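Subject: design request, 117 residues
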């Protein structure tokens, strides 16, 4: 992994941990998938939340390399792994994706975990 990305990710994880510890913060997500010119597929995840100054924050959470078919279950698994890595899997209240199957699976997960959807 690129050193700059590793440092930025660790810094952002620390910031999110601070907000989670200090405030009862919840997050919304948006995701999008694309294929680069070299035919490698990726999923980008953006996180949205209200900061301590009541300002809306939107930041890139992760870019995930897709190594399998883009089934709803695979996208769900990769996003869940990312959320666990950032230790925010229990703080998601809404997720919006362009992929109907994936959206249904992820919102079912949110409902199952007793989140508001």
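Subject: RE: design request

Done. Sequence follows.
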């Amino acid at each position: 992994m690129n050193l700059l990305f590793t440092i930025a990710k660790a810094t952002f994880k620390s910031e999110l941990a601070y907000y989670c510890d200090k405030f009862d913060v919840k997050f919304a997500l948006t995701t999008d998938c694309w294929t680069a010119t070299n035919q490698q597929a990726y999923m980008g995840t953006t996180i949205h939340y209200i900061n301590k100054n009541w300002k809306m924050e939107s930041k890139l959470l992760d870019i995930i390399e897709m190594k399998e078919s883009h089934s709803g279950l695979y996208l769900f698994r990769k996003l869940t792994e990312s959320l666990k890595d950032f230790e925010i899997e229990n703080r998601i209240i809404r997720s919006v994706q362009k992929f109907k199957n994936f959206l249904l699976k992820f919102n079912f997960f949110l409902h199952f975990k007793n989140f508001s959807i």
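Confidence is low (pLDDT under 50) at residues 111-117.
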